[in-house]
Amino acid sequence: MGCRKYVDFDTYPQSNSKLDAVLARGEYHKVKPAPPISGSDHTIVHVLPVLTEKHRESQPKKKKLKPDPSKDNTDILRDALVTTDWNVFRNPRLNIDELTEVASCYINFVSDLHVPKKATPLVTLSKRIPADVDIKRLEKEKRHAIEVKDRELRNRIQRDINRRVYQKRTSVFQEVVTADSKSLWDLLRTLRSPDNDEKQPVSKEMANELKVYFGRFNDSIC
């Protein structure tokens, strides 16, 4: 028949035997056991599809959610905790572990309520370097290798891409670092967002120290 048996675990726990089977062609599925439903005495066979390399890379990357620790959100959270009537949690029937769990759940609830979460996309450094013809060509060859399911060729091309990205990144950073201080400062501004930074007062002494330190990058600065 050319079919493969996917079930490799016991589906009838009472006799430790395999009474259920899943037959399919190819390597496009995988199975795993699941708890029985209601009063059934058979283990459920959960059949799942196996993603190919092409579909796996086409999936959108999930953005990581982190709490927004801005000053306004922190002040709102502090006010909510300060105005809480903690006497409500003083229940003589609760032991120390239960009381700790209740208080922790309440604090987490208040935090989720007053401190919204924002998405922080994962920005790869390879997208910050200038466009490169060789990298684009290798990416095209990699997509073709994925389509023909040549994993060895795909891995070899990926190593070439990583090597080329590293070389390009190194050359770009070297050009910026060896240039004037203004170019270096412009690069640092693109790598991070200073919107949430609090302004720090700069004294006259600190300004003189900074001028002497950064002045060595440009002879015109005195």
UniProtKB/TrEMBL annotation:
<feature type="region of interest" description="Disordered">
    <location>
        <begin position="52"/>
        <end position="73"/>
    </location>
</feature>
<protein>
    <submittedName>
        <fullName>Uncharacterized protein</fullName>
    </submittedName>
</protein>
